Automatic annotation (TrEMBL):
Pfam families named in the record: DUF8106
Residues covered by the DUF8106 domain: 14-56
Top-level taxonomic group: Archaea
Protein name, entry field: DUF8106 domain-containing protein
Length: 73
């Protein structure tokens, strides 16, 4: 039996999509979010309503500390 080649025409959803809980905006992590870079974290804000979506710790080459603390928390 030959497997079917028909299927959805779009690729499966990526796990790196961020969603704004305030207005419903969604975009990939590297999409249209407004990113404010601080010394130790990046703050992602919605381009539509300016809600802060997440503060993500920045990683530095050769830096072993992977703590999740961010000054904006």
């Amino acid at each position: 039996m030959t497997p079917s080649t028909s299927g959805p025409s779009r690729p499966p959803s990526s796990k790196t999509v961020l969603y704004c809980f305030s207005c419903g905006h969604e975009s990939p992590i590297d999409g249209d979010w407004n990113v404010r870079r601080a010394e130790n974290c990046d703050s992602y804000r919605c381009p539509d309503c300016e809600t802060t979506i997440t503060d993500r710790p920045r990683s530095f080459p050769g830096h072993a500390d992977n703590s999740s603390y961010c000054a904006g928390d």
